[in-house]
Design brief:
Blueprint lengths: L2 H10 L4 E10 L6 E6 L5 E2 L1 E4 L6 H13 L1 E12 L5 E3 L5 E16 L8 E7 L14 H11 L1
Parallel strand pairs: 1-7
Antiparallel strand pairs: 1-4, 2-3, 2-8, 5-7, 6-7
Amino acid sequence: MSSYIMDMRKYVGHQTIIQCAASILCINEQGQLLLGRRTDNHKWGYAGGSVEIDEKVEDCAKREFLEEMGLIADEIEFFCVNSGPETHYVYPNGDEVSNIEIIYLCRKYHGQLKNQDGEMEELRFFSVEEIDLEEISPPIRRVVELYIERYR
């Protein structure tokens, strides 16, 4: 959890906060999407997290990509913004958020695929046909649906 979000939680407890996040959808040369099984809800998701004070969203996305998947994004391009009622989420610990998430695509990256921060149990590339939307973390399911529609 970002230090900004932890600081906010000291004041608001589990109440809903607006959380600005940045994420990366990583696509390999075979057109497969990199997903990680989250340790908190055991659903699949992509790399992403909360933007820190004065941090550029692009830098946040790249930082989270490295922390959660061990990869360095060489190039990213805007994909979409995810917001609205579908992004409202209650974490298993009771913290409640309304997400505003900026998502990027990354096809050029380097590094060793490895979870650096313990937020993911498993990392794996999926073809579009292999993705089971019921197994995708709820607040990002709409983004993965959009990805499937565009790249099927």
